[in-house]
């Protein structure tokens, strides 16, 4: 899945998806849940707290 | 990742603002006697503001044509909020500075220099104070653009 496809599915820009991947932005809970729903995996597998 | 269209648009807006208002304020503050006597009138300010508006319109149309969607997401809103918070401080410091100056003038206490000197005439003239206010407004705009750029590049 491309960054643009994920961005379209969760309603953010491609730059925001890139920023999340690079640890430059912590998304809101809403966006975090949307990402986990898209990949159909639990939230804690997508995000970890350092 | 290279610069996004939002970042490019911000950089151009920042450069345009700095160049045009820098040139304008250089003219205004390097010749304060003319400024306060009203010879450097507000027609010039109107011209500069119209020029800035036209250039920003051109920048917006250019980047829309390049295909960047107008989507504003939560990250954009958060960056916008943070940059407005920073620019608010610059603007309020400027407004407080001018308020204190006007307060001193109204009570008869000279704020910068002797009441009957040329400097007093210059620094308390309405045209000069209006230009000072405009300068703080432009400064807050510059801080707004710079903070946005910083957060888009370095993260938030």
Sum this structure up briefly.
The complex is a heterodimer of chains A (50) and B (156). Chain A is an all-alpha fold and 50 residues long. Chain A is 62% helix and 0% strand.
Structure description:
The complex is a heterodimer of chains A (50) and B (156). Chain A has four helices and no strands. Chain A has 50 residues and is mainly α. Chain A has one domain (3-46). The model of chain A has no long low-confidence stretch (mean pLDDT 92). Chain B has one domain. By secondary structure, chain B is mainly alpha-helical. Chain B has helices at 5-29, 32-36, 42-65, 74-107, 118-123, 126-154. Classes of the chains: A mainly alpha (50), B mainly alpha (156). Chains A and B meet through helix 2 of A and helix 4 of B.
Give the key terms:
heterodimer; A: mainly alpha; B: 156 residues; mainly alpha; 79% helix; elongated
User: Number of helical segments of chain B?
Assistant: 6
| Main beta-sheet strand count, sense and barrel state of chain B | none
Summing up helix and strand content along with how strands pair, one would put the structural category of chain B as mainly alpha
What sort of overall outline of chain B do the alpha carbons produce when their principal axes are compared?
elongated
Q: Estimate nothing, just give the exact number of structural domains of chain B.
A: 1
Rg of chain A computed from alpha carbons, rounded to a whole number of angstroms: 10 Å
Query: What proportion of the residues of chain A is helical, as a percent range?
Result: 55-70%
**Greatest interface and its residue counts?**
A-B, 14 and 13 residues
Residue stretches of chain A low in confidence (pLDDT < 50, at least 5 long) are none
Number of strands of chain A: 0
**Count of DSSP E strands of chain B?**
0
The termini of chain B sit apart by 16 Å
Helix count, DSSP H or I runs of 4 or more residues of chain A: 4
Q: Kindly report the oligomeric state of this protein.
A: heterodimer
Structural class of chain A: mainly alpha
Order of helices and strands of chain B: HHHHHH
């Amino acid at each position: 899945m491309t960054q643009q496809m994920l961005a379209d599915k969760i309603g953010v820009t491609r730059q925001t998806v890139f920023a999340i991947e690079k640890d430059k932005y912590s998304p809101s809970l809403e966006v975090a849940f949307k990402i986990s729903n898209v990949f159909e995996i639990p939230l804690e597998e997508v995000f970890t707290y350092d | 990742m290279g610069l996004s269209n939002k970042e490019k648009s911000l950089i151009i807006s920042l450069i345009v603002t700095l160049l045009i208002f820098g040139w304008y304020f250089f003219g205004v503050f390097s010749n304060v006697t003319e400024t306060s006597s009203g010879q450097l009138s507000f027609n010039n300010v109107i011209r500069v503001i119209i020029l800035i508006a036209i250039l920003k319109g051109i920048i917006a149309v250019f980047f829309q044509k390049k295909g960047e969607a107008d989507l504003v997401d939560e990250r954009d809103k958060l960056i916008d909020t943070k940059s407005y918070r920073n620019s608010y401080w610059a603007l309020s410091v400027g407004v407080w500075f001018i308020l204190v100056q006007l307060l001193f003038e109204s009570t008869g206490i000279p704020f910068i220099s002797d009441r009957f000197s040329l400097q007093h005439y210059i620094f308390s003239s309405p045209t000069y104070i209006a230009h000072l206010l405009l300068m703080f407004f432009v400064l807050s705009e510059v801080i707004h653009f710079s903070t946005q750029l910083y957060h888009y590049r370095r993260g938030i």
